[in-house]
Design goal:
Length: about 400
């Protein structure tokens, strides 16, 4: 199905117009707090989104297709595993990684999620916990986008409580045999390798599982109302046999997967703001052009109030993200602080997307405009890598000293 413009709509803002809109939105002058290197990396991602994503995303979303052809382009731009050092990885800062995530999610959450699964989850697991041989074998190709990875932690009955995992790996001489199921695993059907977390007699362990190994099956979950330009799967592991050389030797216990999840959660606090900013840009351009009763909608008091509320939440969220990134780059970040950004920024972003859709009226339910697409995607972003409830309880435990998880 071809997505065609709808009658009586104003065209979404062009890139040059968006620059002016962004200047107006940045009432606190946050951009002035960024270094020249940070701005350069951000602008590289911004140009990629303007040139490759915006013209195509409505069709990709409509067709429920992840554009796998852009993966090597992301690699050439240095956006895969960009916060990792060595092994062909760019070694950029946490703030630079966050800025790129924001720009990518301004295009679509599903595309930023790809970069997160590849870099913050699969590549981070190998970089943090793999052997030297594993790092040399896999990371350079993953950084170039030649090898796609996925991260198998969540199960059908073990989401917010990974301790309920039933996937099990048993030793058999110099091999491991893995059986179980994983669900909501991004990229699994297009990946060449999967990081699989499984219980063993020695505790929780991580494994690199080539997806062409006999017994490994990935099935795409569809139809979906969210993240349609992305791929989520369920994985079946039926007596999958791999050598011990594919076990992540430094991954022992739940510290392994949780440290990777924190990398992804950090990126989310930035990415969600990209979706929110894109919504505000679109509705700000729309209300400035759309006239009712002979007056631009943007001139009405109620419209200005709604726009300003969006602006305030977006600016506050960006301050949280930037401060968190500076702490991460300084090596002083407490994982609890990541929960502040994930909880606050995604919650704010989804409210901005919903209100922006409402301000577009009937035109807002079409794919000519991004807010409803972003709102649908953000329902997934709000759920994965820790729901609102999980992050609330993480913060509650830190605040009160009492754990309320059980």
């Amino acid at each position: 199905m071809t997505v065609a413009p709808t009658e009586n709509t104003q065209a979404p803002a062009a890139p040059a117009d968006r620059d002016e809109l962004r200047r107006r939105i940045d009432v606190l002058g946050i951009e002035a707090q960024l270094t020249s290197d940070e701005l350069a990396v951000r602008d590289t991602a911004r140009r990629f989104v303007d040139e490759r994503i915006r013209p195509n995303i409505a069709q990709w979303y409509e067709d429920a297709r992840f554009p796998v052809e852009i993966v090597p382009e992301l690699g050439r731009l240095g956006l895969l595993g960009m916060h990792l050092d060595g092994y062909g990885c760019p070694g950029r800062s946490a703030v630079e990684y966050g800025l790129v995530g924001m720009e990518l999610e301004a295009g679509d959450s599903g595309l930023r999620t790809f970069v997160s699964v590849q870099g913050s989850l699969a590549m981070s697991a190998i970089h943090k916990f793999g052997s030297e041989e594993q790092k040399q074998q896999y990371l350079p190709g993953m950084a170039r986008g030649e090898i796609i990875g996925c991260f198998g932690l969540t199960e059908p009955k073990a989401g917010s409580d990974p301790a309920g995992m039933v996937t099990y790996a048993r030793r058999d001489g110099d091999h491991w045999i893995i059986s179980g199921e994983k669900r909501w695993i991004g990229l699994a059907s297009i990946a060449q390798l999967a990081i699989i977390w499984a219980k063993t007699d020695e505790g929780l362990r991580g494994f690199i599982v080539p997806t062409d190994t006999p017994g490994f099956t990935a099935r795409v979950l569809e139809p979906k109302l969210s993240m349609r330009a992305s791929v989520q799967c369920e994985i079946e592991l039926d007596e999958v046999r791999i050598p011990d050389s594919l076990r992540l030797p430094e991954a022992t216990g739940y510290r392994g997967p949780f440290s990777c999840l924190n990398e992804a959660r950090y990126g989310i606090m930035w990415g969600a703001l990209g979706a929110a900013r894109d919504c505000l840009e679109e509705v700000l351009a729309y209300t400035s052009e759309r006239r009712q009763f002979g007056t631009p909608i943007a001139a009405f008091q109620l419209t200005q109030r709604r726009l300003v509320e969006m602006q305030l939440e977006l600016q506050k969220g960006l301050l949280v993200a930037l401060h968190t990134g500076r702490l991460k780059d300084a090596g002083t970040l407490d994982p609890v602080q990541i929960s502040v950004g994930k909880l606050n920024n995604v919650r704010a972003a989804i409210e901005i997307a919903r209100d922006a859709r409402a301000m577009l009226g009937g035109n807002g339910i079409t794919l000519d405009y991004s807010p409803l697409r972003h709102a649908n995607n953000l329902e997934s972003v709000r759920t994965y890598e820790g729901t609102d409830e999980v992050h609330t309880l993480i913060l509650g435990r830190a605040l009160t000293g009492h754990a309320a998880f059980s």
